[in-house]
């Protein structure tokens, strides 16, 4: 029988060729590389050799050279069969080594069979076609050999470069999706990155707003600013319209690739140079949000890989746009988060009716650590935790009865004592074959589910927290549930190049401490570049995994050793730690530490997602604090303007605001309402800037006309505030603060519950402060007179509950603040 040696390092390729050639009546001897092939051939020369090129040990080129210079083998025909070296120069080189044929994979079965038969016939008849004289000179051989390798390396490098570009785009896109930027900026960034990664010439996103069928150009890249503005006016499509693929895609919700043929009348040749196009719908839960158009001047630009990557990007961007209102402050954690997918190797085992293992696959060896010899012939008891032994007995019994049990999740033991989460499928093959069990290691998937659940809980928790410490605690609490310790080193100002505060929490002590002390904040003034790992994380904006935290601490400069926070010293010295930057809009807010003996480098994406979550929430609180400071400054400025207009009542508004807030506290209003009352009190006389100064400072009694002018200040204040969006109804409070319970007030004469509670509080505080203080037209009457006034008119002019609260706060020692102070927080009685 004609013998053929098949050389290929891929077992599947060898198997396929073996089946094919044996089906044609040949004897096939497989070899996994050139060395094995030469050994086999010297032991028993074949009639033909078919060899791949790219193999470990000895590749096909080296094999052919030795083959054709070997006295015993050189007359035996040699066929190259390769999918890797396909350049015509590679073929020339192969034939120059003396090979009879050069065949590119995948060849048709009939073609390969014909070539094999043709070469064998020629060999047997000793009529082989003349081949090129084999290269014998070393320099010539290695020169051509190196040229072939370099060509292949260049091809691979180009391919890797394209892959890296796409992967980089996917990674950078994931960062863009979590950045605290507007939707327009996000779409612009994504469009720019796609052009860089894919070589598209134009990218356009057409948005469809709710309740409309129109698709309008929203964002894009590759256009000049002038052209883009013009196209925004001109490019308008409707779902289902006959002209324009954008409208068609909007109707069908299906993607479309056009690589050459633009003859379809639907195509609108707005840009004549376009030679290929890809259209992708942006759909979320069957709802069309828009259509993406990717255009290129190159033909057949959009291959399967590029389309797959763009679909991934479009899907992710679609989710972010749809959920924008929810994730506005936490875009750093938009996931990308796309993070914990693991491929597990299946284990296959068979168990007979006596519950003895009869087969044990390689996958089982890799997953559980036991070799075939250690498991075959033994029961599965060594794999079973004590609590699962009865479960296994029941499952095997059920399998015999039903024939099949699908997707049972449980835990099994490895040889080294680790517990693995596994998914098992049982199939009963009959008494002779017993049961076949397919086991899949889902430990990492379970871990990923736990991480995702914790991440979602952390997102909910951080969305309602108002302080950095509370945000850190919310994230730390979720990580603690997973057996992970964490800490945070913040940077107050990145320009200062100094870390400032170390946050930690000792969960072993959390039940022993009050809420306010659960998070430990320690000063740690450390230059950003003082520790190598910290500096690397900050400068590169990348997370790092360190197997042993001791390696980090060893690099702390000696002058800072004594300052190392107690929270950092609590970390176990010999356990893995992930250090990740807290980044918002490319600004580093600090670094985040997560530690556990079970951490690996594979956990970096997950911990980074937690850090992104934390960073976005952290930035939110900083922004909120700045906004609060700004608003306080504006309110103070308004109050000072009024005081400049009416210097004789300087401090009146401040004192009214302080007393009103104290009354609100006593009435147990919410913190938000208390703050609104305080601010309303500070600006309640804003409208007086429209009153002539001589009236405001007139020492005597006002005339009716003058008094009516003064009464206008409530309306003027309302008009000045009504179009400003405050978190509280300040305009209405200012408008109503002179209304009275019996309807005798002004400007609208409303009464009772129709008057805002906040306005009723300001009304009482205003009267008490005014009577207690000096005025141009009279000396101070004192608090006793004020008390008599509000007591006598309680329930008539003034709200009874508010009057009682006012009297109570003075009873417990309340005093108006000093005239030169400006209260920023309400008084809280002890």
Descriptive notes:
- Helix content is 45%, strand content 17%.
- The protein has 830 residues and is an alpha+beta fold.
- It folds into five domains: 3-136, Rossmann fold (3-Layer(aba) Sandwich); 176-328, GAF domain (Beta-Lactamase), CATH 3.30.450; 346-436, PAS domain (Beta-Lactamase, 2-Layer Sandwich), CATH 3.30.450; 447-618, Beta-Lactamase; 646-811, Hypothetical protein af1432.
- The strands form four sheets. Strands 8-7-6-11-10-9 form a six-stranded antiparallel beta sheet, with helices on both faces.
- Strand 10 (276-284) and strand 11 form a beta hairpin.
- The radius of gyration is 40 Å and the shape is elongated.
